[in-house]
Amino acid sequence: MRAFATAISIHAPAERVWSILTNAADYPSWSSTVERVVGTIAPGAKVAVYTKASPGRAFPLTVTGFEPNRRMVWSGGMPMGLFRGTRTYTLAPRAPGMVDFSMREEFSGFLAPLISRSIPDLQPSFDQFAADLKARAESAA
Question: How far apart are CA 125 and CA 89, in angstroms?
């Protein structure tokens, strides 16, 4: 199974970071890796994510996990579990006004070994996403 992950400490309350992560319309204003997110980020909702790594291509996802100020999961893929991508966002408060943010994406399913070979190295964009989130949350203080 192939996976990508990043983590960063953010000097902001978990509630502020969560409000940034769950505001789909604002992603282009702070994330240098996302063109846009279409839809509403809420439990069970469907969203389409357009990334700068794949301009113009929509990645349809479903919000399959949603624990406010703590954890969110977006999942998508092919029917019958042939290929699945699962991205998990986690917020872990560390001290008053400080939170550890982590993001991990795992690919699974029967076709994952084959399809994963065609997926570019997402690590730089994961690290940039975390840095952009940190900058936005800390500047909103």
Answer: 15
Burial class, 92, CB count within 10 angstroms (exposed 0-12 / middle 13-18 / buried 19+):
middle
What gap in Å lies between CA 27 and CA 34, rounded to an integer?
7
Helix (H/G/I), strand (E/B), else coil: 130: helix
The distance of Cα 76 from the centroid of its chain, to the nearest Å, equals: 12
pTM of the model: 0.92
pLDDT, tens only, 103-118: 999 999 999 888 888 8
| Residue 34 neighbours by CB under 8 Å, 6+ apart | 27, 28, 49, 50, 51, 52, 129
